[in-house]
TrEMBL record:
Pfam families reported for this sequence: HI0933_like, HI0933_like_1st
Cofactors: FAD
Family matches, as PANTHER family: OS12G0638800 PROTEIN
Top-level taxon of the source organism: Bacteria
Protein name: NAD(P)/FAD-dependent oxidoreductase
Domain RsdA/BaiN/AoA(So)-like Rossmann fold-like: 11-412
Keywords for the protein's UniProt record, in alphabetical order: FAD, Flavoprotein
Domain RsdA/BaiN/AoA(So)-like insert positions: 206-359
Length: 414
């Protein structure tokens, strides 16, 4: 990469042709700006392609645009409000409809493409085309310099970006390089490095929406339950910090997964316990004591009327007093059993890491950015959008909506 050649001139250079980068490029281009979109990956928008099981859960209808922070995690959950209330799920749905893409609601407001995530990618590429966006891909990015006085023909400051297709000069630089999740499809820390280069703080990144793991020995009694799924109420934290989700839990060979665990993983902190109610909405103690009055069935069989058979069997095996007919069990033993199922406490040893995480928590500290425009407060012309920012949504389309909304807010300001 050399800067000997004369630079290509653009109004804005956007790094990262993922969800946020493509959408920002399209909207800025459609405003009449000369936009260059650069990505080092061979294929465009790989994360959209693999999202939502290949159908892309592109937004969520339940997002309350007056209080969107409820569905987002970050050091300043209110930061996301401005962008999300100005470009809403309804706006993105209108765009999807204008391209004739069929979609459906699955669960709790989650909207998916009927056919394929590829339809969403093609829509974004068509929008870029309409905006006359230039896309360089694959293209490696080298050093980045801020030229305070700007090029001779312009009176403004600018950014000089070295790339393996030559140097580029632009008034604005938009960083949309995402987080660290799924490195094998192109995730890198470039966005965090650019933030640090320009003196912006970065909240330490960590994997989010990720399965949780347990020590081999501690997990041995449950490993046989791998593949079992059931609805649970799962919580972490104490008092006002307590967060809980009622969703499905999935047992795996190494630990726990499923929507309940992915959601709670974004709030869980290393060393903290999780509490799980394996029969939410059921008063297990009362049901077992009542069964004791008229039933001679084994305890595991009574339990199996209230939860999956495999779980009931595995649980009853944990204590000799639970391996007998219910009418022969002591009240205290039944109550202890009920309690162990409705307040199962366990401490994960870790997570499956970025290899399996759907998102990266942390990122560019929102205190250093304008919530209106996503521009760095102390660095004119430098913007951060999408997942690279310390704004992380719940599972269910919230992360793509943040990508669309932050991109739209930035494109308006470029
Ligand atoms: P994104 O990761 O999309 O794009 C970043 C781009 O930057 C990539 O194209 C990358 O190649 C490029 N880049 C990185 N480093 C670079 C470098 N050094 N040089 C040049 N380019 C570089 N969310 C949701 O709302 N609904 C869903 O259904 C799902 N499903 C889902 C499934 C799976 C398996 C994963 C991993 C994630 C999801 N997500 C999701 C999360 C969602 O995919 C994610 O939040 C958005 O893609 C973030 O958009 P960004 O544009 O910020 O980053």
């Amino acid at each position: 990469m050399t800067s000997a050649a004369s630079p290509h001139l653009f109004d804005a250079v956007i790094l990262g042709a993922g969800a946020a980068g493509l959408f920002c490029a399209a909207r800025a281009g459609q405003r009449g700006l000369k936009v260059l979109l650069i990505d080092h990956a061979e294929k465009v928008a790989e994360k959209i392609r693999i999202s939502g099981g290949g159908r892309c859960n592109f937004t969520n209808r339940d997002l309350d645009v007056r209080a969107p922070q409820r569905h987002f995690v970050g050091e300043n959950p209110h930061f996301c409000r401005s962008a999300l209330s100005r470009y809403t799920p309804a706006d993105f749905v209108a765009l999807v409809q204008s391209h004739g893409i069929g979609f459906h609601e699955k669960h709790k407001g989650q909207l998916f493409a009927d056919r394929s995530a590829e339809d969403i990618i093609q829509m974004l590429l068509a929008e870029c085309e309409r905006g006359g966006v230039t896309r360089w891909q694959p293209c490696r990015v080298g050093s980045i310099r801020f030229l305070a006085s700007g090029p001779a023909e312009s009176s403004t400051s600018s950014y000089q970006i070295e790339s393996d297709r030559g140097p580029v000069l632009a008034r604005s630089l938009v960083v949309a390089t995402g987080g660290l999740s799924i490195p094998k499809i192109g995730a890198t820390d470039l966005g965090y490095r650019i933030a640090q280069q320009f003196g912006l703080p970065v909240v330490t990144p960590r994997p989010g929406l990720v399965p949780l793991t347990f020590d081999g020995e501690a997990w041995a009694p449950y490993a046989g339950l791998a593949g079992l799924a059931l609805p649970v109420d799962m919580s972490t934290g104490q008092g006002k910090q307590r967060t809980h989700f009622v969703e499905d839990l999935l047992f795996t060979h190494r630990g726990l997964s499923g929507p309940a665990v992915l959601q709670i993983s974004s709030y869980w902190r290393e060393g903290e316990p999780l509490q799980i109610d394996l029969a939410p909405g059921v008063d297990l103690g009362a049901r077992l004591l009542e069964a004791k009055q008229h039933s001679r069935k084994r305890i595991a069989n009574e339990l199996a009327a209230l939860m999956p058979h495999r779980l009931a069997d595995a649980w009853a095996e944990r204590d000799a007093q639970w391996q007998r007919p219910v009418n022969e069990a002591a009240d205290k033993a039944l109550q202890r059993l009920a309690e162990s199922l409705s307040r199962w406490q366990l401490v994960p040893s870790g997570t499956e890491g970025y290899r399996k995480a759907e998102v990266t928590l942390g990122g560019v500290d929102t205190r250093a950015l304008s919530s209106q425009t996503l521009e760095a407060k102390a660095q004119p012309g430098l913007y951060f959008i999408g997942e690279v920012v310390d704004v992380t949504g719940w599972l269910g389309g919230y992360n793509f909506q943040w990508a669309w909304s932050s991109a739209a807010a930035c494109a308006e300001a470029l």
